[in-house]
C-alpha cells in the first residue's frame, strides 16, 4: 500500500477532525498565532497548498482540508455538494484553536470559501479567492456532465484509471499542457499524496462521484453564488490566472466576466497574476508567494 503521508515535505502535521459521518483530514503547517484555512479544487487535495504554506511568514499557521470525497477524507460518505462542504468547514473550525482565521480557496474551494463566509461572516477574519468564486455562465438545459467532462479533461479522466507504478502516474501528469513546463518537487509531492492502492493498481484517492456531484451543483448554483458575492460584508480579493486548465488563454474566469461581477459586488477586487494558469497559480513558487502575501493582506 502506498503511504502518501511520506510524500509531503517536512514541517507539516496530519490532523483528523470529527465531522458528520467520520473524520476530515486536515494538514497543518506552522505554529504561529495567525491562522488561515485553505480549501482545494474539485479533483485536488490539501497537499496543493504546500507551496503557499512554505511562503507564509513564520507567525502564521495554515490548515488545509481534504474535502469530503478527496485525499484522506475520501472515506467520508456522501452526500457531497457545496452546502455539505460548508457544513464540514464550520464543523472543523472549533477544533483548530484559532479565532477569526482567514479563508482561502482555489477553484471549487473558492466557491466553498465564499459560501462559508456568507454562512458565518463573524467567524472569519478575511477571504481570498484564487481562480474561482465567480458564477459560471451555463446555457439553459445544458448537459452538466458533458460540460464537466469537456472542461476538466485529464483531471476527471484519471479518476477512472489505474496505474502500474507511481512513476506511471507522474508521467501521466508530466505531459499535461498546463504542467509540462512548470514541473517541480511540490507538484510531485502533491501527486504522490493523491495516490492509493497497491503497485500494479494505483489510483487517485478522489472519488469520481464526489467530483461530479460537486461539479454539477457548482454549475447549477449561479444564483446562490451571485447572491453571496453581492452580500459580502468584508473586502475580498480575487486572484485570477490568464491561462486555463490546459495552459492556454483564456483563463477559466475571463476578465470581462470578472469585471461584470465586480460591478455588482462592491467588496470584490480583482488581480491577475501574469504568466500563470489554473494550476501554476498555486504551484509556481513565485505565484504561490504572491498568493501567500495576498492572504496575509486579507487579514488586515
Describe the model.
The chain has one domain: Alpha/Beta hydrolase fold, catalytic domain (Rossmann fold, 3-Layer(aba) Sandwich), CATH 3.40.50.1820. It has 12 helices and 10 strands. It has helices spanning 50-55, 82-92, 108-119, 144-152, 154-157, 166-174, 185-194, 208-220, 222-230, 255-264, 280-283, 285-298; strands at 12-19, 22-29, 34-39, 60-65, 102-106, 126-130, 195-196, 203-204, 236-240, 268-272. Strands 1-2-4-3-5-6-9-10 form an 8-stranded mixed β-sheet, sandwiched between helices. The chain has a two-stranded antiparallel ribbon with strand order 7-8. The longest helix is centred in the C-terminal third of the chain and has 14 residues, at 285-298. The N and C termini lie far apart (44 Å). The model is unreliable at 1-6 (pLDDT under 50).
Helical content stands at 25-40%
Rg value:
18 Å
> What order do the helices and strands follow?
EEEHEHEHEHHHHEEHHEHEHH
- The CATH architecture name reads 3-Layer(aba) Sandwich
Topology summary:
Elements: E1 12-19, E2 22-29, E3 34-39, H1 50-55, E4 60-65, H2 82-92, E5 102-106, H3 108-119, E6 126-130, H4 144-152, H5 154-157, H6 166-174, H7 185-194, E7 195-196, E8 203-204, H8 208-220, H9 222-230, E9 236-240, H10 255-264, E10 268-272, H11 280-283, H12 285-298
Parallel strand pairs: 3-4, 3-5, 5-6, 6-9, 9-10
Antiparallel strand pairs: 1-2, 2-4, 7-8
Helix pairs in contact: 2-3
List keywords for this structure.
two-stranded antiparallel sheet, 300 residues, alpha/beta, Rossmann fold, 8-stranded mixed sheet
Amino acid at each position: 500500500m502506498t503511504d502518501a503521508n511520506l510524500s509531503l515535505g517536512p514541517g507539516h502535521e496530519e490532523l483528523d477532525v470529527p465531522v458528520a459521518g467520520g473524520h476530515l483530514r486536515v494538514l497543518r503547517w506552522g505554529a504561529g498565532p495567525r491562522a488561515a484555512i485553505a480549501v482545494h479544487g474539485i479533483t485536488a487535495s490539501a497537499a496543493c497548498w504546500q507551496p503557499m504554506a512554505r511562503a507564509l511568514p513564520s507567525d502564521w499557521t495554515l490548515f488545509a482540508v481534504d474535502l469530503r470525497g478527496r485525499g484522506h477524507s475520501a472515506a467520508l460518505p456522501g452526500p457531497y455538494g457545496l452546502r455539505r462542504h460548508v457544513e464540514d468547514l464550520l464543523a472543523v473550525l472549533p477544533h483548530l484553536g484559532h479565532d477569526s482565521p482567514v479563508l482561502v480557496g482555489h477553484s471549487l474551494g473558492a466557491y466553498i470559501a465564499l459560501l462559508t463566509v456568507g454562512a458565518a461572516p463573524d467567524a472569519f477574519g478575511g477571504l481570498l479567492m484564487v481562480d474561482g468564486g465567480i458564477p459560471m455562465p451555463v446555457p439553459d438545459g445544458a448537459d452538466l456532465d458533458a460540460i464537466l467532462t469537456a472542461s476538466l479533461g485529464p483531471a476527471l479522466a484519471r479518476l477512472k484509471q489505474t496505474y502500474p507504478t507511481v512513476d506511471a502516474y507522474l508521467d501521466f501528469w508530466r505531459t499535461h499542457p498546463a504542467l509540462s513546463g512548470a514541473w517541480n518537487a511540490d507538484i510531485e509531492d502533491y501527486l504522490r499524496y493523491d495516490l492509493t492502492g497497491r503497485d500494479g493498481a494505483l489510483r487517485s484517492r478522489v472519488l469520481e462521484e464526489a467530483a461530479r456531484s460537486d461539479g454539477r451543483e457548482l454549475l447549477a448554483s449561479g444564483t446562490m453564488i451571485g447572491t453571496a458575492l453581492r452580500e459580502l460584508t468584508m473586502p475580498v480579493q480575487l486572484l485570477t490566472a490568464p491561462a486555463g486548465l490546459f495552459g492556454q488563454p483564456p483563463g477559466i474566469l475571463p476578465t470581462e466576466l470578472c469585471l461584470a461581477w465586480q460591478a455588482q459586488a462592491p467588496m470584490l477586487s480583482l488581480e491577475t497574476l501574469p504568466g500563470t494558469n489554473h494550476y501554476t497559480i498555486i504551484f509556481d513558487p513565485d505565484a504561490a508567494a504572491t498568493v501567500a502575501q495576498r492572504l496575509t493582506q486579507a487579514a488586515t
